[in-house]
Protein backbone atom coordinates (compact mmCIF):
# COMPACT_ATOMS: atom_id res chain seq x y z
CA UNK A 1 0.00 0.00 0.00
CA UNK A 2 1.02 3.57 -0.50
CA UNK A 3 2.11 5.49 2.59
CA UNK A 4 -0.75 7.49 4.05
CA UNK A 5 0.48 10.94 3.07
CA UNK A 6 1.36 9.83 -0.44
CA UNK A 7 -1.99 8.13 -0.88
CA UNK A 8 -3.80 11.31 0.17
CA UNK A 9 -1.93 13.30 -2.45
CA UNK A 10 -1.53 10.57 -5.04
CA UNK A 11 -4.85 10.99 -6.76
CA UNK A 12 -4.27 14.73 -7.12
CA UNK A 13 -1.25 14.38 -9.39
CA UNK A 14 -0.66 12.01 -12.31
CA UNK A 15 2.50 10.81 -13.95
CA UNK A 16 1.44 11.70 -17.46
CA UNK A 17 4.03 13.80 -19.23
CA UNK A 18 3.01 16.84 -21.27
CA UNK A 19 4.75 17.41 -24.60
CA UNK A 20 5.25 20.67 -26.42
CA UNK A 21 5.03 21.45 -30.11
CA UNK A 22 8.35 22.40 -31.68
CA UNK A 23 8.52 25.62 -33.70
CA UNK A 24 9.02 25.26 -37.43
CA UNK A 25 12.15 27.36 -37.97
CA UNK A 26 15.11 27.33 -40.35
CA UNK A 27 18.08 25.84 -38.54
CA UNK A 28 21.62 25.21 -39.71
CA UNK A 29 22.88 23.44 -36.61
CA UNK A 30 22.09 19.98 -35.28
CA UNK A 31 20.56 21.41 -32.10
CA UNK A 32 16.80 20.94 -31.78
CA UNK A 33 14.88 24.21 -31.42
CA UNK A 34 13.60 24.81 -27.91
CA UNK A 35 9.84 24.91 -27.34
CA UNK A 36 8.36 28.31 -26.56
CA UNK A 37 7.06 28.75 -23.04
CA UNK A 38 3.50 29.11 -24.26
CA UNK A 39 3.52 26.07 -26.54
CA UNK A 40 0.19 24.22 -26.66
CA UNK A 41 -0.13 21.18 -24.39
CA UNK A 42 -0.11 17.82 -26.11
CA UNK A 43 -0.77 14.36 -24.79
CA UNK A 44 2.37 12.31 -24.45
CA UNK A 45 0.51 9.04 -24.81
CA UNK A 46 1.73 5.93 -23.09
CA UNK A 47 0.79 2.51 -21.87
CA UNK A 48 -1.30 2.69 -18.70
CA UNK A 49 -1.13 -1.09 -18.43
CA UNK A 50 2.56 -0.91 -17.50
CA UNK A 51 2.85 -2.18 -13.91
CA UNK A 52 3.16 0.46 -11.22
CA UNK A 53 3.05 0.62 -7.44
CA UNK A 54 1.11 -2.36 -6.03
CA UNK A 55 -2.33 -1.26 -4.85
CA UNK A 56 -5.37 -2.82 -3.21
CA UNK A 57 -8.77 -1.93 -4.66
CA UNK A 58 -11.92 -2.53 -2.65
CA UNK A 59 -15.20 -3.23 -4.45
CA UNK A 60 -18.83 -3.12 -3.38
CA UNK A 61 -22.00 -3.55 -5.47
CA UNK A 62 -25.59 -4.75 -5.06
CA UNK A 63 -26.51 -8.41 -5.20
CA UNK A 64 -26.65 -9.90 -8.70
CA UNK A 65 -30.41 -10.21 -8.98
CA UNK A 66 -30.36 -9.73 -12.76
CA UNK A 67 -27.92 -10.07 -15.63
CA UNK A 68 -26.64 -6.50 -15.76
CA UNK A 69 -25.58 -6.41 -12.09
CA UNK A 70 -24.00 -9.85 -12.39
CA UNK A 71 -21.96 -8.57 -15.33
CA UNK A 72 -20.87 -5.53 -13.29
CA UNK A 73 -19.25 -7.75 -10.65
CA UNK A 74 -17.75 -10.15 -13.19
CA UNK A 75 -16.26 -7.36 -15.28
CA UNK A 76 -14.74 -5.63 -12.25
CA UNK A 77 -13.05 -8.82 -11.06
CA UNK A 78 -11.80 -9.74 -14.52
CA UNK A 79 -10.28 -6.29 -15.02
CA UNK A 80 -8.51 -6.43 -11.67
CA UNK A 81 -7.08 -9.84 -12.51
CA UNK A 82 -5.59 -8.40 -15.69
CA UNK A 83 -3.17 -6.29 -13.60
CA UNK A 84 -0.19 -7.80 -11.82
CA UNK A 85 -0.04 -4.78 -9.49
CA UNK A 86 -3.65 -4.96 -8.20
CA UNK A 87 -5.06 -6.87 -5.24
CA UNK A 88 -8.86 -6.99 -5.50
CA UNK A 89 -10.97 -7.11 -2.33
CA UNK A 90 -14.67 -7.49 -3.03
CA UNK A 91 -17.11 -7.52 -0.12
CA UNK A 92 -20.26 -9.62 -0.19
CA UNK A 93 -22.84 -8.09 -2.55
CA UNK A 94 -26.10 -7.08 -0.89
CA UNK A 95 -29.32 -5.24 -1.61
CA UNK A 96 -29.56 -4.09 2.00
CA UNK A 97 -28.44 -0.48 2.41
CA UNK A 98 -27.26 -0.93 6.00
CA UNK A 99 -25.24 -4.00 5.12
CA UNK A 100 -23.58 -2.28 2.17
CA UNK A 101 -22.58 0.69 4.32
CA UNK A 102 -21.08 -1.69 6.90
CA UNK A 103 -19.23 -3.61 4.17
CA UNK A 104 -17.71 -0.44 2.71
CA UNK A 105 -16.71 0.70 6.19
CA UNK A 106 -14.86 -2.62 6.57
CA UNK A 107 -12.85 -1.80 3.44
CA UNK A 108 -12.09 1.66 4.81
CA UNK A 109 -10.86 0.09 8.05
CA UNK A 110 -8.61 -2.20 6.03
CA UNK A 111 -6.99 0.93 4.58
CA UNK A 112 -7.39 -0.09 0.94
CA UNK A 113 -5.76 2.19 -1.64
CA UNK A 114 -8.94 2.90 -3.61
CA UNK A 115 -12.62 1.98 -3.62
CA UNK A 116 -15.02 1.21 -6.45
CA UNK A 117 -18.61 1.51 -5.24
CA UNK A 118 -21.85 0.91 -7.09
CA UNK A 119 -24.31 1.93 -4.37
CA UNK A 120 -27.76 0.44 -3.97
CA UNK A 121 -28.85 4.02 -3.41
CA UNK A 122 -26.51 6.91 -4.09
CA UNK A 123 -28.16 9.23 -1.58
CA UNK A 124 -28.03 6.79 1.31
CA UNK A 125 -24.41 5.80 0.72
CA UNK A 126 -23.09 9.34 0.27
CA UNK A 127 -21.95 9.48 3.90
CA UNK A 128 -19.76 6.39 3.61
CA UNK A 129 -18.28 7.70 0.37
CA UNK A 130 -17.35 10.91 2.16
CA UNK A 131 -15.88 8.90 5.04
CA UNK A 132 -13.60 7.09 2.62
CA UNK A 133 -12.50 10.29 0.93
CA UNK A 134 -11.82 11.93 4.30
CA UNK A 135 -9.68 8.94 5.20
CA UNK A 136 -7.57 9.57 2.10
CA UNK A 137 -9.04 6.70 0.09
CA UNK A 138 -10.14 7.81 -3.39
CA UNK A 139 -13.59 6.56 -4.41
CA UNK A 140 -14.63 5.68 -7.93
CA UNK A 141 -18.42 6.08 -7.85
CA UNK A 142 -19.93 3.66 -10.36
CA UNK A 143 -23.22 4.45 -12.11
CA UNK A 144 -25.61 5.46 -9.29
CA UNK A 145 -24.20 8.79 -8.25
CA UNK A 146 -23.66 10.03 -4.70
CA UNK A 147 -25.38 13.24 -3.63
CA UNK A 148 -22.14 15.15 -3.15
CA UNK A 149 -18.90 15.40 -5.18
CA UNK A 150 -17.14 15.28 -1.80
CA UNK A 151 -18.06 11.58 -1.68
CA UNK A 152 -16.09 10.54 -4.75
CA UNK A 153 -12.93 11.25 -6.70
CA UNK A 154 -14.34 10.18 -10.06
CA UNK A 155 -17.81 9.20 -11.23
CA UNK A 156 -18.24 6.89 -14.22
CA UNK A 157 -21.57 5.70 -15.54
CA UNK A 158 -23.96 5.37 -18.42
CA UNK A 159 -26.03 8.04 -20.13
CA UNK A 160 -29.68 7.38 -19.30
CA UNK A 161 -30.95 10.43 -21.17
CA UNK A 162 -28.70 9.46 -24.08
CA UNK A 163 -30.23 5.97 -24.15
CA UNK A 164 -33.63 7.52 -24.73
CA UNK A 165 -32.23 9.83 -27.40
CA UNK A 166 -30.53 6.93 -29.22
CA UNK A 167 -33.71 4.84 -29.15
CA UNK A 168 -35.85 7.78 -30.26
CA UNK A 169 -33.52 8.67 -33.11
CA UNK A 170 -33.41 5.08 -34.41
CA UNK A 171 -37.19 4.78 -34.31
CA UNK A 172 -37.74 8.26 -35.76
CA UNK A 173 -35.33 7.76 -38.65
CA UNK A 174 -36.72 4.34 -39.51
CA UNK A 175 -40.34 5.49 -39.48
CA UNK A 176 -39.56 8.61 -41.48
CA UNK A 177 -37.70 6.54 -44.07
CA UNK A 178 -40.71 4.23 -44.34
CA UNK A 179 -43.04 7.19 -44.81
CA UNK A 180 -45.15 6.33 -41.78
CA UNK A 181 -47.44 9.20 -40.83
CA UNK A 182 -48.79 9.60 -37.29
CA UNK A 183 -47.09 6.45 -35.95
CA UNK A 184 -48.17 4.72 -32.78
CA UNK A 185 -45.02 4.36 -30.67
CA UNK A 186 -45.15 2.34 -27.46
CA UNK A 187 -42.78 2.54 -24.50
CA UNK A 188 -42.10 -0.13 -21.88
CA UNK A 189 -40.19 1.63 -19.12
CA UNK A 190 -38.40 0.40 -16.01
CA UNK A 191 -39.31 1.58 -12.51
CA UNK A 192 -41.03 4.93 -12.85
CA UNK A 193 -39.95 6.45 -9.53
CA UNK A 194 -36.25 6.04 -10.35
CA UNK A 195 -34.48 9.09 -11.79
CA UNK A 196 -32.77 6.88 -14.37
CA UNK A 197 -36.13 5.78 -15.78
CA UNK A 198 -37.34 9.36 -15.87
CA UNK A 199 -34.20 10.44 -17.72
CA UNK A 200 -34.55 7.63 -20.26
CA UNK A 201 -38.18 8.52 -20.93
CA UNK A 202 -37.39 12.23 -21.26
CA UNK A 203 -34.62 11.57 -23.77
CA UNK A 204 -36.94 9.30 -25.76
CA UNK A 205 -39.73 11.87 -25.88
CA UNK A 206 -37.35 14.69 -26.77
CA UNK A 207 -35.76 12.74 -29.62
CA UNK A 208 -39.12 11.65 -31.07
CA UNK A 209 -40.27 15.26 -30.90
CA UNK A 210 -37.57 16.30 -33.36
CA UNK A 211 -39.30 14.08 -35.95
CA UNK A 212 -42.75 15.40 -35.11
CA UNK A 213 -43.63 12.16 -33.29
CA UNK A 214 -44.77 11.52 -29.74
CA UNK A 215 -44.84 8.61 -27.31
CA UNK A 216 -48.09 6.67 -27.41
CA UNK A 217 -49.13 3.87 -25.02
CA UNK A 218 -46.68 3.50 -22.15
CA UNK A 219 -46.31 0.96 -19.36
CA UNK A 220 -43.73 0.77 -16.57
CA UNK A 221 -42.33 -2.61 -15.51
CA UNK A 222 -39.72 -3.45 -12.86
CA UNK A 223 -36.59 -4.50 -14.76
CA UNK A 224 -37.53 -8.19 -14.51
CA UNK A 225 -38.62 -10.64 -17.20
CA UNK A 226 -41.81 -11.36 -15.27
CA UNK A 227 -42.68 -7.68 -15.01
CA UNK A 228 -41.88 -7.11 -18.66
CA UNK A 229 -44.18 -9.92 -19.75
CA UNK A 230 -47.03 -8.72 -17.55
CA UNK A 231 -47.04 -5.07 -18.58
CA UNK A 232 -46.43 -5.83 -22.26
CA UNK A 233 -49.48 -8.06 -22.33
CA UNK A 234 -51.49 -5.14 -20.94
CA UNK A 235 -50.00 -2.67 -23.43
CA UNK A 236 -50.72 -4.94 -26.40
CA UNK A 237 -54.32 -5.38 -25.33
CA UNK A 238 -54.76 -1.61 -25.07
CA UNK A 239 -53.10 -0.91 -28.44
CA UNK A 240 -54.53 -2.88 -31.36
CA UNK A 241 -51.92 -1.26 -33.65
CA UNK A 242 -48.31 -0.31 -33.04
CA UNK A 243 -45.58 0.90 -35.36
CA UNK A 244 -42.64 0.77 -32.94
CA UNK A 245 -41.85 0.01 -29.30
CA UNK A 246 -38.93 0.92 -27.06
CA UNK A 247 -38.24 -1.38 -24.11
CA UNK A 248 -35.84 0.24 -21.60
CA UNK A 249 -34.10 -2.92 -20.43
CA UNK A 250 -32.97 -6.12 -22.15
CA UNK A 251 -33.31 -8.19 -18.96
CA UNK A 252 -37.02 -7.41 -18.80
CA UNK A 253 -37.02 -7.69 -22.61
CA UNK A 254 -37.07 -11.48 -22.31
CA UNK A 255 -40.57 -11.18 -20.88
CA UNK A 256 -41.50 -8.44 -23.32
CA UNK A 257 -40.69 -10.67 -26.30
CA UNK A 258 -42.52 -13.58 -24.68
CA UNK A 259 -45.70 -11.50 -24.40
CA UNK A 260 -45.35 -10.29 -28.00
CA UNK A 261 -44.96 -13.86 -29.25
CA UNK A 262 -47.90 -15.07 -27.18
CA UNK A 263 -50.07 -12.33 -28.65
CA UNK A 264 -48.92 -13.17 -32.18
CA UNK A 265 -48.06 -9.53 -32.89
CA UNK A 266 -45.43 -8.62 -35.48
CA UNK A 267 -46.72 -5.49 -37.22
CA UNK A 268 -44.13 -3.32 -35.42
CA UNK A 269 -40.41 -3.28 -34.68
CA UNK A 270 -38.81 -2.98 -31.26
CA UNK A 271 -35.68 -1.40 -29.78
CA UNK A 272 -34.17 -2.75 -26.55
CA UNK A 273 -31.95 -1.22 -23.91
CA UNK A 274 -28.60 -2.02 -22.21
CA UNK A 275 -27.07 -4.45 -24.71
CA UNK A 276 -27.53 -8.00 -23.44
CA UNK A 277 -26.05 -10.92 -25.33
CA UNK A 278 -29.55 -12.39 -25.61
CA UNK A 279 -30.80 -9.26 -27.36
CA UNK A 280 -27.76 -9.14 -29.63
CA UNK A 281 -28.28 -12.74 -30.74
CA UNK A 282 -31.91 -11.97 -31.58
CA UNK A 283 -30.84 -8.89 -33.54
CA UNK A 284 -28.21 -10.90 -35.40
CA UNK A 285 -30.65 -13.71 -36.24
CA UNK A 286 -33.25 -11.15 -37.36
CA UNK A 287 -36.14 -13.47 -36.54
CA UNK A 288 -38.05 -11.39 -33.98
CA UNK A 289 -39.49 -7.86 -33.83
CA UNK A 290 -36.33 -6.78 -31.97
CA UNK A 291 -34.21 -4.90 -34.50
CA UNK A 292 -31.88 -2.82 -32.31
CA UNK A 293 -30.78 -2.14 -28.75
CA UNK A 294 -29.12 0.92 -27.22
CA UNK A 295 -26.20 0.37 -24.90
CA UNK A 296 -25.80 0.89 -21.19
CA UNK A 297 -22.85 -1.40 -20.88
CA UNK A 298 -21.67 -3.09 -17.67
CA UNK A 299 -18.19 -2.72 -19.13
CA UNK A 300 -18.22 0.51 -17.11
CA UNK A 301 -17.18 -1.65 -14.12
CA UNK A 302 -14.02 -2.70 -15.95
CA UNK A 303 -13.25 0.94 -16.64
CA UNK A 304 -13.96 1.87 -13.02
CA UNK A 305 -11.35 -0.60 -11.77
CA UNK A 306 -8.86 0.68 -14.35
CA UNK A 307 -9.47 4.24 -13.17
CA UNK A 308 -9.19 3.27 -9.49
CA UNK A 309 -5.80 1.72 -10.19
CA UNK A 310 -4.48 4.82 -11.95
CA UNK A 311 -5.78 7.18 -9.29
CA UNK A 312 -4.33 5.08 -6.45
CA UNK A 313 -0.97 4.97 -8.22
CA UNK A 314 -0.99 8.71 -8.86
CA UNK A 315 -1.09 8.27 -12.62
CA UNK A 316 -3.13 9.99 -15.29
CA UNK A 317 -4.68 8.63 -18.47
CA UNK A 318 -1.91 8.19 -21.00
CA UNK A 319 -3.78 9.53 -24.02
CA UNK A 320 -4.95 12.73 -22.32
CA UNK A 321 -2.91 15.91 -21.97
CA UNK A 322 -4.05 16.44 -18.38
CA UNK A 323 -2.03 14.85 -15.61
CA UNK A 324 -5.06 13.71 -13.61
CA UNK A 325 -7.84 11.20 -14.21
CA UNK A 326 -11.04 13.15 -15.03
CA UNK A 327 -13.59 13.77 -12.29
CA UNK A 328 -16.52 12.55 -14.38
CA UNK A 329 -16.88 10.15 -17.30
CA UNK A 330 -20.21 9.55 -19.04
CA UNK A 331 -20.32 6.63 -21.44
CA UNK A 332 -21.99 7.13 -24.81
CA UNK A 333 -25.09 5.10 -25.68
CA UNK A 334 -24.47 3.33 -28.96
CA UNK A 335 -27.19 1.88 -31.18
CA UNK A 336 -26.63 -1.79 -31.99
CA UNK A 337 -28.22 -3.10 -35.19
CA UNK A 338 -27.73 -6.17 -37.36
CA UNK A 339 -25.08 -4.24 -39.29
CA UNK A 340 -22.75 -3.66 -36.31
CA UNK A 341 -23.82 -6.28 -33.77
CA UNK A 342 -20.70 -8.41 -34.25
CA UNK A 343 -18.57 -5.49 -33.00
CA UNK A 344 -20.52 -5.22 -29.74
CA UNK A 345 -21.15 -8.92 -29.08
CA UNK A 346 -18.04 -9.32 -26.85
CA UNK A 347 -19.50 -6.69 -24.46
CA UNK A 348 -22.89 -8.40 -24.16
CA UNK A 349 -24.07 -9.84 -20.85
CA UNK A 350 -26.30 -12.85 -20.31
CA UNK A 351 -29.77 -12.05 -19.02
TrEMBL record:
Keywords: Signal. Residues 1-31 form the signal peptide. It is found in: Cell envelope. Residues 57-315 form the Periplasmic binding protein domain. Belongs to the bacterial solute-binding protein 2 family. PANTHER family: D-ALLOSE-BINDING PERIPLASMIC PROTEIN-RELATED. This is Substrate-binding domain-containing protein.
Amino acid sequence: MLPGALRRRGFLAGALGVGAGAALTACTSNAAPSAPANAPAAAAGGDNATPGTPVTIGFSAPAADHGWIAAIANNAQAQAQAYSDVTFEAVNPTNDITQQIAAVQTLINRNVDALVILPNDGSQLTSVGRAAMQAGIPVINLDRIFDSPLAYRTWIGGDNYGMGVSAGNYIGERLKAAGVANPVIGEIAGIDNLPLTQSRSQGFADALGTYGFRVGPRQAADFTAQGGQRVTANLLQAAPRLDAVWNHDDDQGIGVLAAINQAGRNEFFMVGGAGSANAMRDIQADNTVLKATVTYSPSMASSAVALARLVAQGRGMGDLAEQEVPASITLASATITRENVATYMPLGFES
